[in-house]
Design brief:
Blueprint: no helix or strand
């Protein structure tokens, strides 16, 4: 079995907004990857709390700890480009 860096469904262009793989038609999460993995064309260069769409909002996963320069597994880019 291969170990892959960054090949998770969260970085795959086949992931739909409801966390379903459009190739396999199943629900996935950050621990999943497959041989049909296709990396998104562009990822945010500076992922941290300040560039997160959830920062200081009601959906922030860690409102007591969130601060500039920090990052958690719930980061959501404010602007995405592909």
């Amino acid at each position: 079995m291969s170990i892959r860096l960054g090949n998770s469904c969260l970085n795959c262009e086949n992931l739909l907004t409801n966390k379903t793989c459009k190739i396999h038609g199943v629900k996935v999460d950050s621990n999943y990857t497959c041989d049909s993995f296709s990396m998104k064309a562009a990822l945010k260069d500076d992922p941290n709390c300040v560039t997160c769409a959830r920062y200081q909002g009601p959906t922030c996963a860690n409102p007591q700890k969130a601060a500039p320069g920090m990052l958690c597994s719930h980061w959501a880019p404010q602007n995405a480009s592909a």
